[in-house]
Design a protein that fits this description.
- By secondary structure, the chain is mainly alpha-helical.
- It has helices spanning 3-14, 19-33, 59-67, 69-80, 116-125, 132-151, and strands at residues 41-46, 51-56, 88-93.
- It has a 3-stranded mixed β-sheet with strand order 1-2-3.
- The longest helix has 20 residues, at 132-151.
- The protein is elongated.
Amino acid sequence: MGVGDLLGRATKAFTRAGDSVLTSVRAAWPEATGPGTVNHAYPIRRSRAGVVTVACSDAVWAQEMDMRRDEIAGRLAALLDDPDAVAGLRFVVADHAIPGPDPGPRPRVVPPPPDPDAVARAEQATSAIDDPDLRALVTRAAARSMERDKRS
């Protein structure tokens, strides 16, 4: 038995029925509705009966999506390769439930180098470590910690 089989079993054991289908619906949503739609309409839950509730940013979007209900359901069925995955679509105004845009990666903040006194104290504190790579790593961490404590 492979790792994939074990993960599949664990996922089935700890996942509520319908969660994997909702995840698949969310993944297929941009292609089924158009790329800009995710900012205004997003699937938020799936009932046991298979009805997917979609949060819309306002009443206009809810009405527009409701008018496209059959088209979207057909596209989702085709993309998911399962005509029974989505029994229906329900559109509600719930702008608070729509995820915001991805902010992207956070810039890496490089702290200033510690002063020579902090480095000397850190070297003294870590001198008993035999492994030179580990000693260098712990010395660097200790010096930065001492520097940060000094600024506080």
